[in-house]
Amino acid sequence: MKIALLVGAAVAPLLLGGTAVAQTTGQTPATALEEVIVTGRPVFRNRTDDVVPTLSYDLEYFQRFEPLTVGDALKRVPSVTFLSDVLESDGVRLRGLDPGYTQILINGERVPGGDDDRSFFVDRIPAELIERVEVVRSASANRSGDALAGAINIVLRDAYALDGGYLRAGALLFPDDEVGGTFGAVYGGAVAGGRLLVGASVQDRRNPKDKFSQRFDRPGGTLDNIEDQTDVRDGTDYSFNAAYQVAVGGGTLDLSGVFVRTDRVQDEDSIEYRAGRRQNADLLTINDNDVDIQTDNLSLRARYAVPMLGGETRFKLGYATFDDEQSEFENEAEYLRDTVPFPDEDRFTADFEVRDLQDEETSIALEHSRPFAGGTEIEFGLQAVQKDRDSVTRVANRVRFNVPNAPAPRPTQPAFVFNTNTYAIEETRIDPYVMVSGEAGAAKWEAGLRYETTDTTIAGVDNDYAILLPSVSLRYSLSDTDRLTVSAARTLRRPRFNDLAPVTLEEERGDNDFRGNPGLEPETAWGVDVGVERRLGRRGVVGLNVFYRDVTDLIEDVNTGLQGSGGAGTFIESIDNVGDGQVYGVEFDLSTPLTVVGLENTGVFLNASWLDSQVEDALGERRFNDQSDYVVNFGFTHDIPTWGAAFGATYRKQGDAFGRVYAEEVTTSYGADLEVFLEKRLFSNAVLRLTGTNLLDSSKDEIFDKFADQGDQIARVYDEYELETESAGPVYQLVMRVAF
Fold first, then answer.
1. Which of 259, 492, 612, 615 could form a disulfide with 581 if both were Cys (CB 3.0 to 4.6 A apart)?
2. Which residues contact 102 (CB under 8 A, 6 or more apart)?
3. How far is Cα 50 from Cα 483, in angstroms, rounded to an integer?
């Protein structure tokens, strides 16, 4: 019913304008052969005509390495870091900042995410759906302002992207020698006076990892225990997308939709041993933890653009949902609670939890642009979003019982008794904006104002605010090959939903409780980007950009000083707007053929970002939590046109990240990642690719400094010191693409 209402609402005002007329957009869709066969020349970053500093990468830039998800593709984009497990690329950390600072857009429109900071996990979108990816470094008045670090715009194929169709089929060999499959099909063509594009894909995903932990009483101290763990994440992604464009009533109607389902099981099994001795006499615990996940993402869009009032008027309707269902159990058997070692179990503990999160957003926009005085153009509009989020969590009372020593029988496990926790969030945003742009000689510019109003109700408590967000950008051509971009804007980051809820969660932060603060204000930042860019020959480009963000009303953990539910020595933590922070860095990118040395069919690329920040907490100065200090990616592709073949490699390394919260600190390091591809054109319409990822067996290493409370953290009196390493092996993929 909601889909029918959306389509009906989009079409109804258009019927007044008359019947469909011939399409006159002038776009020329790519042929299926051009989409599949990209051998013959290297593919590089686009040099966009945008005034706001924007890096654009077409699908061909990523396709040869056959990424499975958008997250995999973004590993080759400047300033993008992740704090995910090995072989995972989920929450984008643009410029190293928390995912909540990065705006994820699909076709220029924001989409709801499952996390409480509104972030969207990009590994939910198969790479096969994308037309291009844009890194938007600064803000414009006609886009949502919650993009303090910047925005990632994932542009999906539209109805004019393809003429014809192709099939994609292949197999994947995972590190544990399991084999998976991948299949996709896309078709585009003329239908009913317009153009239609449809696509579907199914792909297996598997991520088997090994983890090893050592726990000491302090750095360099006594080894208390070790833990061996296997973590296997096994699932399948299903996707369907469609786009239709037709001329109606003198204007153009665009309808599009994408649906993605992720079915996934996370299976973690671990064994702990006393003092690092792997023997039955020192067995401490055996733990089995499984999570069954099904996530559905649906996004529907309708857009009608029509000449009106001396310019162009655009009507937009959107409907997006995020539905995440998870069931998790954890069973743990404990040994050595007495003097009798394995196989005599001393205590059994079982936990079970079912979570259902449903997030629904309906958006509407009315926008108009037209020529203005002195050769300028004015654009203004009103954008509104209604969000409804319902969360239901069913938590079983913990089942725990002592097990009599053999030969007495083990007691029967009692049935789970569930407690149901629910909360609903309603958020309404109404954002008017106005923007003026123009061009004079070598300069092209835009300036605008956006006024964002937000009304959030969570757990019956309101949180309202309104913020004015100015922005201005200038692009100046220094010569035929060189240009300068300068951009300044005010942006914001809204509070996490869970941080607003005025409820107390027991033992949420270690042994301490946590209580939300409904009076939180959003973080705001004034920022500037300054960049220079030079064209190298006909196809190459090199760029250098520096950025700075001055953040106010920073949201950080605080200690209320009130005693927690754990009794003496525990506290109730909360969160508040405290202090300020600064984020800054330098970004370099290069992509060019080696024509200057006679290697026109060889392309090289290099992205390097140096990232830094400063914030002050109770222990002193530090970076923004978990910001890597650098990320670098370089590689090459080489085409052999006479053989119809190509090969290439890419190398990526991400710097260390440090995070500090109440009574805990963590330092995270990643190993390097190497990917390669080999490509052979088999027929005039078919190409075969072999790719390998994680060829260096990358690892994720973490150091945890844990303390009983903040006083001990300041005095460096340790509760526990833990070293953890996680590793995984290579993934190989063999894929054939056939155009028709």
1. 615
2. 92, 93, 94, 119, 147, 149, 150, 151, 152
3. 12
